[in-house]
Amino acid sequence: MKRMRRLLVIGCLCLPLIALARPAAVPTVALEPVQQQWLEEHRSLRVGLVLQAPYAQFDRRLQQLYGANVELVSWLAQALGLDLTWRNFADQAALEHALKAGEIDFAPGLTQTPASLRLWLFSDPYMRVPQLVVGPRSGAVAVELEKLEPSERVVVRTPSPLADYLRSNYTHLNLQGVPNERQALQALLGAQASFAVVDEAQLSRLSRESEFSDLVVVGDIGLPQLLRIGSRRDWPLLADVLERGLQAMPAKQLEQLHQRWLQPKYPRLSESAGFWQNLALLFGLLLLCAIATLLWQRREQRQLERSLLQAREALAERHGREQALRLSQFSIDHSTVGILWINWDSHVRYANHAAEGMLGYAEGQLLDRPLRDFEPNLDMDRWLELWRRVRAGNGGAEQFESQCRCADGSVLPVDLSLSFLRFRDAEYLVMFLTDVTERRRTVAALRESEAQLKGIAGNVPGLVFRLERNPAAGELEFPYISEGSEALVGYTPAAIQHPQMGLRNLVHPDDRSDYHRVQDLALANNQDWSWQGRIVTRQGEQRWADIKASTRRLADGRVVWDGVVWDISQSKRAELALARSEGQLRELSAHLESVREEEKARIAREVHDELGQMLTVLKLEVSMCELAYAELDPGLHERLASMKRLIAQLFQLVRDVATALRPPILDAGIASAIEWQARRFEARTQIPCLVQVPDNLPALSDAKATGLFRILQEALTNVMRHAQAHTVQIELLRTGSTLRLSVIDDGVGFCPDQPRPTSFGLVGMRERVLMLGGSMTLDSEPGEGSSLSVSIPLD
User: Fold this and answer.
1) What would the 3-class secondary structure string for 15-58 be?
2) Shortest CA distance to 250 belongs to which of 77, 27, 501?
3) Are 197 and 233 within one domain?
4) What is the DSSP letter of 62?
5) How many folded domains does the chain comprise?
6) Closest Cα to residue 335, out of 307, 349, 316, 355?
7) Domain boundaries, position 309
8) Same domain for 215 and 243?
9) Which residues contact 334 (CB under 8 A, 6 or more apart)?
10) Which of 210, 348, 505, 756 is 20 to 30 Å from 557 at the Cα level?
11) Quick check: 108 and 73 in contact, CB under 8 A?
12) Residue 334: pLDDT above 60?
């Protein structure tokens, strides 16, 4: 934009016509096939123009339109091969009425607004018209609107969006509205305003008149007017074609268009040669003034130096005293503590705002009021006694609590402090009043809270304690032990609070190391702690106790632990008995499972050996009969062949029964058994199995190998029945002295927390794992598959 403004202004004085303004060469516009086809069908288009200089004007002599928008559309028509019909309108409303009536197809030079978006399809902006600040050439300087004084009047055309923008963004401006831009510049020339705000297009038109030759551009408000081409909303392809045409228009062509029609006649202030001459002259005058001032100061400095030094010392001393006095007075007036200055006759000579507010008096009503009006307990005799005692106390203060009577008759509890003061040959007692209403209320609430806490702690069926570290000695102490200690352990609170006692000496000797470990860790890290174990009462009885303590930090930085000691002897005995019972039941179950597996193995061997031998003999007998008599009777031959097939099926059935009772592959090791079971599962379900087993696996006991194999069978059975999986991954991994079996599927999954009363597969697997001394983990989510992990010790 600066380059365009530096071009010669003379070329803008002549208004070129359409024929003279068209460029010599127009580039070809590249269109899409759909756009090109539409353009072939709609070569004849109607253009609407609002007659407004310098965008569009009509030359009656030549009967021809000319202007910036006319030249732009003519270039587009030549580039796109359009046959245009021109229609001009007096204003924007008439143009939009013609659009609604279907009389025009597109119009240039429009400004996009929320209301116009419902009527037009707008192109990207093709021209930016700045809003310029104009001022008189003489004495003009660069202007920023936010720094203008209210006395400097600014004229602008109203009503207009520009005026609305200035009112909303520069609320301090002294704006004056005029009907048009000409009158705005005339008001500026007539000294009726300091500045005028005009858009660049109208300024270009008016600057060609000699009347306005003494004006200059002194600023830009930063709100440009963006000109676009609007087209019919029912022809979106027309908008695309016009947009392609605008994009093909060279930037130099648009710059020349802007220079011919919109460039003002006179330059900006910073581009004026007179501006720099005036600025150089101003600097020269300032330099001469500075030299003259320096010489005059040197001449006068010696004469005034002594008098100024004396005056400065006197002023500094006086200023220091006044400043100290003002600070003291301000501090006293705005202190939150009530302050009264009282004479020996008990009359108030000064009262700050806090004292007046506490006693409910308006400003100045406490002055010259006797003390007994708001402190009935201080009669004249007692006041004189206080006066003599405080005055003879060598600066000491007298403090006591009292109750003052407020202006409305209410009673205010306060702390009174009296100090003697001698000021300007007069003596006073300064009374400081502190409102203790909230403090008394807090103390009462604290006492009530302590009473409630003691009542609650006394009725708790256990021992409530508070443990804290002594800040001075760094040792632990019990500032509070509830009365329930006698019922729980037989010791009084005072006995437990003794430094040689505490809770540690109540713990059973066999459990003290664990108790010390838990408590020391909590005390070292300032955290909560919980412990269960045995304690010994004063009578020597053993009890199970649950000790829990929570930590908190006090305002002074100390850390305390509030805790409770519960008697859980009955529940602990029941828990231990239940654990023993569960252990016995699990041992019995393990024994029964071992016996059952042994019985299965025995039956499998007998079925395989005995039945196998008998079937082998039977098969040999049938073969001998077939050799001896088959040729004599064809029917007998068929019967013997059928018996051989039945014997073969019976062989397979015997093998299946023996394998189901105890697979012989287990004798080859658990790794081979897992591989064999995975291949059988694949053959039965057509679900691929990925198996990973270690190469060198130590030999397992028969019980552990059989248990792991049965767990794998149950897991694969669950996958086949419920998972609807696509793949299964089986992994056997040795980690130290632990053997872990994992079965993972990508099926539908389930919610492990949801009870399934009719399914005992998971319960059976978990019991098998517990019998083997291991652990089982099951992870699953609906839609995310399932993962079963079993870990058993190798030893």
Assistant:
1) CCCHHHHCCCCCCCCCCCHHHHHHHHHCCEEEEEEECECCCEEE
2) 27
3) no
4) T
5) 6
6) 355
7) 282-326
8) no
9) 352, 353, 354
10) 505
11) yes
12) yes
Task: Judge if 346 and 319 occupy the same domain.
Answer: no
In 284-366 the beta strands, taken as DSSP E runs, fall at 338-342, 348-351
Digit-coded pLDDT (tens) for 420-467? 777 777 788 788 888 777 777 777 777 776 666 666 655 566 778 778
* Amino acid letter, residue 532: Q
In a domain, 378, yes or no: yes
Q: Determine how many CB atoms are found less than 10 A away from the CB of residue 178.
A: 19
Residue 634 tokens, joined:
């064809």
For the domain that residue 690 is a member of, what is the CATH number? 3.30.565.10
For residue 349, which of 427, 240, 438, 465 has the smallest C-alpha distance?
Answer: 427
Residue 584 lies in a domain: no
pTM above 0.70, yes or no: no
Q: Which two tokens mark 739?
A: 């053997």
SS (H, E, C) 533-598: EEEECCCCCEEEEEEEEEEEECCCCCEEEEEEEEECHHHHHHHHHHHHHHHHHHHHHHHHHHHHHH
Instruction: Give the closest residue to 710 by CA, choosing from 549, 593, 578, 544.
Output: 593
157 occurs within a structural domain: yes
Instruction: Out of 379, 405, 435, pick the residue that ends a domain.
Output: 435
**Phi, psi of 148, rounded to the nearest 5 degrees:** -75, 145
Give the position of tokens 């003259």: 292
In this structure, is residue 145 part of a structural domain?
A: yes
User: What whole-number distance in Å separates Cα of residue 585 and Cα of residue 507?
Assistant: 33
Integer Cα distance of 580 and 404 in angstroms: 75
Residue 175 maps to which CATH number? 3.40.190.10
Task: Inform me whether the pLDDT recorded for 581 exceeds 70.
Answer: no
